[in-house]
Amino acid sequence: MGLYDREYVRNSAPATHDKQEVVRSEKSLSKFIAQTYQLFAATLISGAAGAYVGVGMASVIAANYWWIAIPWMIFGMFGLHLIKNKPGINYIVLFAFTFIGGMILGPLISNILGMSNGSTLVANAFISTAVIFGGLSIYAMNTKSDFSSWGKPLMIAFIIAIVVALVNMFVFKSPILHIAFLGVFMMIISAMVLYDTQNIINGMYESPIDGAIALYLDFFNMFSALLQIFGIFGGDD
Description:
This protein has 237 residues and is mainly alpha-helical.
């Protein structure tokens, strides 16, 4: 789920501010980046705790998956940015959101752990996510390429990919189409990492919470996709 409105948070500053007022000074930008990545690290810990709980409740979550996942996705699209500037509650809601995100992965992780080499597959998926995510982030921080115009095309591509995945899940039920979707999805999420990272280092988000949410969802989606890929091709020894 990567539908958190990145274009909204990048353009939410009052229209009367000129560019020099919106772009942070070098000192404040460094602080902003540090706070964003500290908060991102905290959301990963929260998500990991949620995943641990979710594995223990996998059957319950699986039986009520859409009743949990759909409100979570809708809130991610429309609700998070409404509370980001409310001191205290913004952090409570942020960590509740990331914790539930981890729980949603519980059934998938539990299913893979049921394989004889399941723990290895989950570990490899996480390590691969960290390596790919880190490599893309470093590239975005150092490249001279500008990804700032990628926002809307990426969101459109993401929505189309999700619609195709849902149609395949409920209508075609084709394993080959699902694998193709995962490949395309990985490319979309990888591009989102570039886009979000560059926006963070350029100070284009209104608050560290915005940047942390964007990074968390990128990591969440990439890990989810790689879990499925490793589960499909890893198999049992």
